[in-house]
């Protein structure tokens, strides 16, 4: 019984982390689906979202506003606005001018952007990690204290529900809205879409903005969950999210969700049963294995090499 | 020399090539013709190992080669050109031919660093072979130019020369006359025949230009929508009703 | 049109404010557990607004400005000149290189100990960058985990000296070969991946190796690292004041000169110089050998190269292994120079710096890469007060280079093999 509860505890922790990976992974997968590049700086966009949320929360506290719904809403809006603007600007400055060149060129540009943004925040806000207030505290426990209690915190529930809402909204948007349809058209065939009169530049910008907005949501949630942020906060999370995107099949939105959850669970099981030190090894190992044996991921479509 | 039996290639739900059989004997020029999208290039991609065929058997000199990696097939003596010329554009013409001869040169790294006599001798030989073939296809004048700057007709000929320096037994040409003017096509015609006559190379040809195909082919295979339609001598094929309907009707 | 322009320019200016003001203008200050906000200095705030104004004006007159910029580049007197003939250029290049090497041989005897130490570091980076240049510049494989091979070289020497008492000279070839072996084993399964996937996988490998070094405490000492790594000896002569190993003699006693701590530093510098020159020469030779042609062919058109019988895996693997070999070389020298190593020296940032050197210098170009290595290592030292901005500038430079000059500052000019007249 106790073993089973311990297992469920790890499962819940894994699903919580995993659903935030999924939120970040959307940005990778949508961008890759449309212009076929890895947006290496996406993790930094997420980190900036977390910082902005923290700045907003601290600012409100200084003003004496502490009513939770208002604080969360304002922090969320600020984070989304700043991250989306950043996503838009990054695409304009670093990616659009190199679009269509040899594959490595946009990738190196993206790595440069990632280093730049990391140090931009580092210089402005210092390199030390800063405490992030746990706005949503408490939780409930299942099982009694003398065996192993299964605890689920409210923040975990919040993370899970918010992710679900975002994912549903995104799927509806992609499936129903005009822009969503255009997105799908562009990802099928960029050249053809532009011949048909779709403003592909606008759609690509929109993709970056949507991805960045979701990353900002993840930034706020994970900031509260982990309780601190630092400028390197985005790098590893970005890699994990990328792994999740590849795992699920890059270019596929349900794939990103599935990949995120699997990766989160795999990591928390490693921490729970082996050692927390090796959880990164497991996720990178998983990434390598997937790329080697099933590069299209779980839900991705196979690619035929054109000759 | 080459026997293809019931070759099939499936992409997802699409059967791009369905039960196609071709065979090429020593010193023979065999053509594959068919309307656009008939699956000719897919057949080539299967034969040269770029695709793994979904079914059928490919025998080259009696050995099964289906599913073998591309570079091994090429090393056995089956070398191809491409519908859209694929040269190493930043390399010079002569360097394009040197790359192709890597099997003839000494690739031992230590030998190269020390410039052993064997290494020098083989480098010299491969330069001479390159010179011979450049002369043969009329490109000696432009040997030191970047391949990307050549005229289209010259690029086509360079691609064929690049195959020939590997000393192939079977040369596979994918629409070699595409984009050439009538005079250049004529030259190409002579070149292909001479490859067979003078160098004992068999040729498998995909072509749209009917005059070229009819003039030089020993036998012709017609495929349409991935399926074999007819095969035989140029004369037989010319008079085949199905062919006239499928091919000329479309034109 | 004009109204549209103003709208766009205004939008860009607002975005500039949004992405810079919250991060730059409002600073989080942690005071114990309490976090509060502090307004930035007036200077920062004014700069942020100024930046927005600049963006606004630039976007408003964008077409005009771009036209002017095009005019400036036409003013460059060198732009219209024909490139030098190949023979002449090759000769000039080798003269310049020989000159630099001779200068580098005598230079350390006239400068301070600190400068020589820094120069040794520059040489280590040159070795790393030349090695990575084979992988990225020549073979076109983006390796983001290059630092892993550097770590293998460094740790091989450290462990061999700690557990088996190996000297620098014995460890040097072992370290390089072991790094090459790692390259071979890691590269074999992953090299068939497409370019950008390969980049991520190598990044993953690099991180895995670092995490293992960090956690395999019994062997590697974990985060505490390994110390006491010996310096190189010269024919059994040690450079310390006292002899550490039995059977060795000391340099200053044998030569009958006074002990000076500079001797050791200069000796290490000279070793690094010789190794860097060897690295450069070997790679230069490779570039003109069949293997170099194969790298280039595969980079230019993989399909065509395969159709001619080049094995994709074998060719890529050769580049990967050779790159790893020289990283191992550099790692051994690094371990010897520092005397102490820990996983902290082998983080992703280190890979990114080496990559930045290769990109800035010009992928494939040896001279470019050497100059970039010197600039990237020395500039932050010269301007210490700006050293915080080093990585910021690197990142920005990488982006700008890709946008404006992806071939690098001194792009590779191929040395063609020419077909002479009949003979």
From TrEMBL, chain A:
<feature type="transmembrane region" description="Helical">
    <location>
        <begin position="45"/>
        <end position="64"/>
    </location>
</feature>
<keyword id="KW-1133">Transmembrane helix</keyword>
<keyword id="KW-0472">Membrane</keyword>
<dbReference type="GO" id="GO:0015808">
    <property type="term" value="P:L-alanine transport"/>
</dbReference>
<dbReference type="InterPro" id="IPR052157">
    <property type="entry name" value="BCAA_transport_permease"/>
</dbReference>
<feature type="transmembrane region" description="Helical">
    <location>
        <begin position="20"/>
        <end position="38"/>
    </location>
</feature>
<dbReference type="InterPro" id="IPR001851">
    <property type="entry name" value="ABC_transp_permease"/>
</dbReference>
<feature type="transmembrane region" description="Helical">
    <location>
        <begin position="154"/>
        <end position="175"/>
    </location>
</feature>
<dbReference type="Pfam" id="PF02653">
    <property type="entry name" value="BPD_transp_2"/>
</dbReference>
<feature type="transmembrane region" description="Helical">
    <location>
        <begin position="203"/>
        <end position="226"/>
    </location>
</feature>
<dbReference type="GO" id="GO:0042941">
    <property type="term" value="P:D-alanine transmembrane transport"/>
</dbReference>
<dbReference type="GO" id="GO:0005886">
    <property type="term" value="C:plasma membrane"/>
</dbReference>
<keyword id="KW-0997">Cell inner membrane</keyword>
<comment type="similarity">
    <text>Belongs to the binding-protein-dependent transport system permease family. LivHM subfamily.</text>
</comment>
<keyword id="KW-0029">Amino-acid transport</keyword>
TrEMBL record, chain B:
<dbReference type="GO" id="GO:1903806">
    <property type="term" value="P:L-isoleucine import across plasma membrane"/>
</dbReference>
<dbReference type="GO" id="GO:0042941">
    <property type="term" value="P:D-alanine transmembrane transport"/>
</dbReference>
<feature type="domain" description="ABC transporter">
    <location>
        <begin position="2"/>
        <end position="250"/>
    </location>
</feature>
<dbReference type="GO" id="GO:0005304">
    <property type="term" value="F:L-valine transmembrane transporter activity"/>
</dbReference>
<keyword id="KW-0067">ATP-binding</keyword>
<keyword id="KW-0029">Amino-acid transport</keyword>
<dbReference type="InterPro" id="IPR003593">
    <property type="entry name" value="AAA+_ATPase"/>
</dbReference>
<dbReference type="GO" id="GO:0015808">
    <property type="term" value="P:L-alanine transport"/>
</dbReference>
<dbReference type="GO" id="GO:0016887">
    <property type="term" value="F:ATP hydrolysis activity"/>
</dbReference>
<dbReference type="InterPro" id="IPR027417">
    <property type="entry name" value="P-loop_NTPase"/>
</dbReference>
<dbReference type="InterPro" id="IPR017871">
    <property type="entry name" value="ABC_transporter-like_CS"/>
</dbReference>
<dbReference type="GO" id="GO:0005886">
    <property type="term" value="C:plasma membrane"/>
</dbReference>
<dbReference type="Pfam" id="PF12399">
    <property type="entry name" value="BCA_ABC_TP_C"/>
</dbReference>
<dbReference type="GO" id="GO:0005524">
    <property type="term" value="F:ATP binding"/>
</dbReference>
<dbReference type="Pfam" id="PF00005">
    <property type="entry name" value="ABC_tran"/>
</dbReference>
UniProtKB/TrEMBL annotation, chain C:
<protein>
    <submittedName>
        <fullName>L-leucine ABC transporter membrane protein /L-isoleucine ABC transporter membrane protein /L-valine ABC transporter membrane protein</fullName>
    </submittedName>
</protein>
<keyword id="KW-0812">Transmembrane</keyword>
<dbReference type="InterPro" id="IPR043428">
    <property type="entry name" value="LivM-like"/>
</dbReference>
<dbReference type="GO" id="GO:0005886">
    <property type="term" value="C:plasma membrane"/>
</dbReference>
<feature type="transmembrane region" description="Helical">
    <location>
        <begin position="265"/>
        <end position="283"/>
    </location>
</feature>
<feature type="transmembrane region" description="Helical">
    <location>
        <begin position="42"/>
        <end position="61"/>
    </location>
</feature>
<dbReference type="Pfam" id="PF02653">
    <property type="entry name" value="BPD_transp_2"/>
</dbReference>
<feature type="transmembrane region" description="Helical">
    <location>
        <begin position="386"/>
        <end position="404"/>
    </location>
</feature>
<feature type="transmembrane region" description="Helical">
    <location>
        <begin position="314"/>
        <end position="334"/>
    </location>
</feature>
<dbReference type="InterPro" id="IPR001851">
    <property type="entry name" value="ABC_transp_permease"/>
</dbReference>
<feature type="transmembrane region" description="Helical">
    <location>
        <begin position="346"/>
        <end position="379"/>
    </location>
</feature>
<feature type="transmembrane region" description="Helical">
    <location>
        <begin position="94"/>
        <end position="112"/>
    </location>
</feature>
<feature type="transmembrane region" description="Helical">
    <location>
        <begin position="146"/>
        <end position="164"/>
    </location>
</feature>
<keyword id="KW-0472">Membrane</keyword>
<dbReference type="InterPro" id="IPR021807">
    <property type="entry name" value="LivHM_N"/>
</dbReference>
């Amino acid at each position: 019984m106790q073993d089973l509860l311990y297992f469920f505890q790890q499962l819940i922790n894994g699903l919580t982390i995993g659903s935030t990976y999924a939120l970040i992974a959307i940005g990778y997968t949508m961008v890759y689906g449309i212009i076929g590049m890895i947006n290496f700086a996406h993790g930094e966009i997420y980190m900036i979202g977390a910082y902005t949320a923290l700045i907003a929360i601290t600012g409100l506290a200084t003003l004496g506003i502490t009513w939770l719904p208002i604080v969360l809403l304002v922090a969320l809006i600020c984070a989304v606005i700043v991250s989306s603007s950043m996503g838009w600007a990054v695409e304009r400055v670093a990616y659009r001018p190199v679009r269509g060149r040899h594959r490595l060129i946009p990738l190196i540009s993206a790595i440069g952007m990632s280093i730049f943004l990391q140090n931009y925040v580092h210089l402005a806000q210092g390199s030390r990690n800063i405490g992030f207030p746990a706005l949503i505290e408490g939780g409930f426990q299942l099982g009694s204290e003398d065996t192993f209690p299964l605890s689920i915190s409210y923040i975990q529930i919040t993370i899970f529900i918010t992710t679900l809402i975002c994912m549903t909204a995104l799927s509806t948007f992609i499936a129903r809205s005009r822009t969503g349809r255009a997105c799908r058209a562009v990802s099928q065939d960029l050249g053809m879409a532009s011949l048909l009169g779709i403003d592909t530049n606008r759609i690509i910008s929109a993709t970056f903005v949507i991805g960045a907005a979701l990353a900002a949501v993840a930034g706020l949630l994970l900031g509260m969950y982990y309780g601190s942020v630092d400028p390197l906060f985005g790098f590893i999370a970005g890699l994990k999210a990328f792994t999740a995107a590849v795992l699920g099949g890059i270019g596929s939105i349900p794939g990103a969700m599935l990949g995120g959850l699997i990766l989160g669970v795999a990591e928390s099981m490693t921490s729970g049963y082996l050692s927390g030190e090796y959880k990164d090894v497991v996720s990178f190992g998983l990434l390598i294995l997937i790329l080697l044996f099933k590069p299209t991921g779980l839900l991705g479509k196979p690619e035929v090499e054109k000759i | 020399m080459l026997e293809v039996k019931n070759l099939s290639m499936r992409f997802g739900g699409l059967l791009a090539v369905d039960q196609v059989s071709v065979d090429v004997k020593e010193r023979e020029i065999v053509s594959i013709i068919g309307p656009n999208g008939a699956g000719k290039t897919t057949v080539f991609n299967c034969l040269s190992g770029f695709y793994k065929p979904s079914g059928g058997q490919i025998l080259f000199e009696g050995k099964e080669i289906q599913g073998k990696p591309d570079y091994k097939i090429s090393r056995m003596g089956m070398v191809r050109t491409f519908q859209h010329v694929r040269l190493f554009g930043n390399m010079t013409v002569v360097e394009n031919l040197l790359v192709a001869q890597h099997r003839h040169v000494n690739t031992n790294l230590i030998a190269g660093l020390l410039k052993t006599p064997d290494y020098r001798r083989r480098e010299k030989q491969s330069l001479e072979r390159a010179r011979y073939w450049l002369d043969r296809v009329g490109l000696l004048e432009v040997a030191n130019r970047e391949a990307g700057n050549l005229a289209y007709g010259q690029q086509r000929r360079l691609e064929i020369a690049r195959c020939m320096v590997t000393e192939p037994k079977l040369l596979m040409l994918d629409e070699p006359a595409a984009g050439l003017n009538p005079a250049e096509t004529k030259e190409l015609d002579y070149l292909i025949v001479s490859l067979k006559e003078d160098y004992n190379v068999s040729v498998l040809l995909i072509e749209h230009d009917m005059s070229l195909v009819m003039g030089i082919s020993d036998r012709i295979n017609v495929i349409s929508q991935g399926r074999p339609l007819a095969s035989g001598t140029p004369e037989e094929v010319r008079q085949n009703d199905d062919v006239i309907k499928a091919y000329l009707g479309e034109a | 049109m004009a109204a549209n322009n103003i709208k766009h320019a205004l939008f860009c200016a607002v975005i500039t404010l949004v992405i810079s003001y919250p991060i730059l203008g409002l600073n989080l200050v942690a005071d114990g557990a309490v976090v509060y906000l502090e307004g930035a200095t007036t200077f920062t705030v004014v700069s942020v607004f100024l930046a927005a104004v600049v963006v606004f004006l630039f976007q408003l007159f964008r077409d005009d400005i771009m036209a002017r910029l095009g005019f400036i580049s036409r003013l460059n007197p060198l732009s219209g000149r024909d490139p030098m003939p190949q023979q002449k250029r090759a000769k000039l290049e080798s003269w310049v290189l020989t000159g630099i090497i001779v200068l580098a041989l005598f230079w350390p005897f006239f400068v301070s100990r600190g400068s020589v130490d820094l120069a040794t570091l520059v040489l280590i980076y040159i070795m790393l960058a030349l090695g990575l240049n084979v992988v990225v510049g020549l073979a076109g494989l983006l390796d983001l985990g290059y630092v892993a091979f550097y770590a293998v070289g460094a740790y091989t020497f450290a462990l061999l000296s700690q557990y088996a008492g190996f000297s620098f000279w014995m460890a040097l070839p072992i370290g390089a070969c072991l790094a090459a072996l790692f390259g071979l084993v890691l590269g074999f399964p992953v090299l068939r991946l497409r370019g950008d996937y390969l980049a991520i996988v190598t990044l993953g490998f690099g991180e895995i190796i670092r995490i293992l070094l960090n956690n395999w405490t019994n062997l590697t000492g974990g985060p505490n690292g390994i110390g006491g790594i010996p310096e190189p000896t010269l024919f059994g002569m040690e450079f310390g004041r006292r002899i550490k190993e039995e059977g060795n003699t000391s340099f200053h006693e044998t030569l009958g000169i006074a002990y000076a701590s500079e001797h050791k530093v200069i000796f290490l510098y000279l070793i690094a110089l010789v190794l860097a020159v060897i690295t450069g020469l070997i790679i230069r030779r490779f570039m003109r050998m069949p293997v170099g042609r194969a790298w280039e062919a595969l980079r230019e058109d993989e399909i065509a190269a395969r159709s001619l019988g080049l094995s994709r895996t074998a060719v890529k693997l050769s580049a990967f292994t050779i790159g790893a070999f020289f990283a191992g070389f550099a790692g051994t020298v690094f371990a010897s120079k520092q005397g102490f190593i820990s996983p902290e020296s082998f983080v992703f940032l280190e890979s990114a710096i080496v990559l930045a050197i290769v990109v800035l210098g010009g992928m494939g170009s040896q001279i470019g890469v050497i100059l970039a290595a010197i600039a990237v290592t020395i500039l932050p030292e010269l301007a210490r007060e700006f050293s915080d901005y080093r990585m910021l500038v690197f990142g920005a430079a990488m982006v700008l280079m890709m946008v404006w000059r992806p071939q690098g500052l001194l792009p590779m000019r191929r040395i063609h093999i020419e077909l002479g007249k009949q003979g």
